[in-house]
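Appendix B. Worked example

We walk through a single record from start to finish. Start with the input: the chain for Merlin, Podargus strigoides, length 552.
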Amino acid sequence: MSIRGLKKKQPKTFKVKIITVDAEMEFSCEMKWKGKDLFDLVCRALGLRETWFFGLQYTIKGMCTWLKMDKKVLDQEIPKEDPISFHFLAKFYPEKVEEELLQEITQHLFFLQVKKQILDEEIYCSPEATVLLASYAVQAKYGDYDPNFHEPGFLAHDELLPKRVLRQYQLTAEMWEEKITAWYAEHRGIARDEAEMNYLKIAQDLEMYGVNYFPIAQNKNHTDLLLGVDAKGIHIYSINNRFSPNKSFEWSAIRNISYSEKELTIKPLDKKAEVFKFFSSQLKVNKLILQLCIGNHDLFMRRRKVDSIEIQQMKAQAREEKARKKMENQRLAREKQLREEAERAKEELERRLFQLEDEARQANEALLRSQEAAELLAEKAQIAEEEAKLLAQNAAEAEQERQRLEITALKTKEEKRLMEQKMREAELIAVKLVKESDRRAKEAEHLKQDLHEAREAERKAKQKLLDITRLNYPHMVKYPQYSPIDTRDANFDKGSIKLDLKDIDLKRLSFEIERERLDYIEKSRKFEDRLKELKSEIHALKLEEKQSGLYS
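Next comes the structure step. The output line below is what the pipeline stores for this chain.
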């Protein structure tokens, strides 16, 4: 057979998306499949055996409808989309959840759906009951409460209370969390399936639990009413009150339900009782009401009959599973208790060990402190001894210093006296030098004057001699080369030599006077420097004397 032939024989399929309360799944369905084929596929995928409670719901033209099991999927009025979406939901509710819900998956799906209906306010619940239900939901999700792990704010991202309750009370999210946690802490030791079952047992007692409401009108006066269908029967409500029905028909008291177009008729089992007729808005609504009535009535009658072999097996398995889980939970609880006791004993031992270590540490620290104190005292004693020696040495040095200062003071006084004497002598010498300087200056002035007078007399003598020479020897002036030499000329030369010698003596005398004057100036300068040094020494001696007086 060719590959093309195989392709032709493969059945055509269409895609379906199944949406549960907490997950989504996609399947490929054959074109000829009926609703039951698709429903069985979903149940097998979920591992669900209690299939009679559930159905596949879809929305068409704003109306929720259930997929019919005996008709082909594509022949029904379903949405034209790819993939086709169906919601896998509980269609019928049990009268007593604890007795009828056998599988854990069935219980979990009911828990999720009822919880969503309460949060969406499809089922009314009092604020106190919502807090209690929320605590069981937290127990089912997080397990036992642990204050070390479940810190404040751990429920911040969980939707646990209806918005109506949050608006009704002016409480912060932290306050609501505190209230829920107070109940949550009391559920310690409850397993997840037990917490979900406790949730459902509380929810099944609510007035709106498991009721499907439809708007209707009575035939006589066309009063607007609500018709409710649940596991126990049919109930008639006023439009503004969904809690307390005005009239109820239990399934055991209903003989027949039928509809004709928009009219629906309920015939009681008692033939003498009045037949109840009402009108709905659409024919589809009557079909849906009749479908729900038939399903709930069948379940009602099944509960009151002997269980089938399948149900008996499922109940036996459920009992065994519950017993096994109970034993497992007891074992886990015992192990948990032993572990907690061991942890507490460990914590106590660690605390005791820490305490002993702390005491040992404190003892060691005290011992170290005492050793340090002893070493410090020994060091202080040694320091005190050294200080005593040092003080004794300082006292001896001070005594020596005192004696030295006394000697220094005596020397200072003697030196001061000598210096004062030297200063007085220096002052006398200075006075003398000043006087001598003045005298020498006067003498130098007189000598200069005498020198000047001598030079003036010499000049005059030379001039006079020249004049005499000219008068006596006029021809010598004119003819100096032929002048005769005689005794007078020789005498003249001797006089000139004498004059020259006298001139030389005057120069030498002037030079000596100048040199003595310079020597005197140099000695005066040196004497002044020496005088300044003497004054500085006297000033330093005075300071030392003052300091020695302070030391004394």
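Two observations about the output. Residues 309-472 form the longest helix (164 residues). Residues 475-499 have pLDDT under 50 and may be disordered.
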